[in-house]
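hiii, so i know i said id send this last week but things got crazy w the move. better late than never?? heres the sequnce for the chain we talked about at the cafe, plus the structure i predicted for it. fair warning i was half asleep when i ran it
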Amino acid sequence: MPREISAKEAKQRAGRFCALRERSPNELLEKLKSWGLSQEESLEIVEDLIQQGFMDEQRFANAFCNDKFEFNSWGKQKIKAHIFSHKLSEQVVQRALNGIDPVKYTQRLFDLAKTKWLRLEDEEPIKQKQKTLAYLANKGFEVDLIWNAINELEGKGH
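okay and structure toks below
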């Protein structure tokens, strides 16, 4: 069991923890509790760090959504499912998801679809569609957008 630390030391460590990268309030709360602080002490430290600008729910949500889209090529549905564990408000999450550039989003979906489609050239057309759809759905893209991309690829004879 880790040694318990004082609230003052915990606040300093929490500030450094938040300075490394964006953190959600829930993530910090769990970290503080793992250091042996009570719920009340932990909540007080989280509130202090929010007041001081070390942490911001919207900033965290924006960074999370942007990173998962840019670096993992996740669609909005998968991002939303994973951000849920951070216990952010629906409005914060929706604003962050809306912050993803729709043109870039559609282009990324099409690029992923095209790459998968071309890899499956030797498959029967129905299998090619099914596997491309499954791949993109697993990435978290919306089914109507996936079908638009598949129909476009099919129409171009790719």
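btw Residues 57-98 form one domain. thought thatd interest u
miss u guys!!
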